[in-house]
Amino acid sequence: MIKIANLSEIPPGGSKLVFFEETPIALFNINGSIHAWDNRCPHRGASLSDGYISEKTIQCKYHLWKFSIRKKCAVENDQIKITSFRVEVVNDGIFIEI
Fold first, then answer.
1. Using CA atoms, how far apart are residues 28 and 71, in angstroms rounded to an integer?
2. Which residue segments constitute the domains of the chain, with CATH numbers given?
């Protein structure tokens, strides 16, 4: 696992864009739980980190596609998956498995 950010950098209900090598990773703080997704929307490659965040979904700003936080897929079509990364928080550090 690699340290990718600090918990203090992502406010509740917020997000942060980070990079591992050339992979953009969106970090989301949803109700105190950290989620790490490939930042590229599978529809048109738009950034998810600056999308609309709710307790259940992340919505891409480009074409308004919604993705389920729990299922890690498009709300309207669960065959459209989001690449996600396993997350561990240790003290203030956010670690992901690539």
1. 15
2. 2-96 (2.102.10.10)
Residue 84 β-bridge partners: 37
pLDDT in tens, 24-42: 999 999 988 999 999 999 8
| Whether 52 contacts 14, CB under 8 Å | no
Q: Give the amino acid at 7.
A: L
| Integer-rounded Cα radius of gyration of the chain | 12
36 touches 16 (CB < 8 A): no
Residue 75 · residue 27 · CB < 8 Å? no
Q: Which stretches of 1-98 are assigned E, i.e. beta strand? A: 2-6, 15-20, 23-30, 33-38, 52-53, 57-59, 66-68, 73-74, 84-85, 87-90, 93-96
pLDDT at residue 44 greater than cutoff 90? no
77 Cβ neighbours under 8 A, 6+ residues apart: none
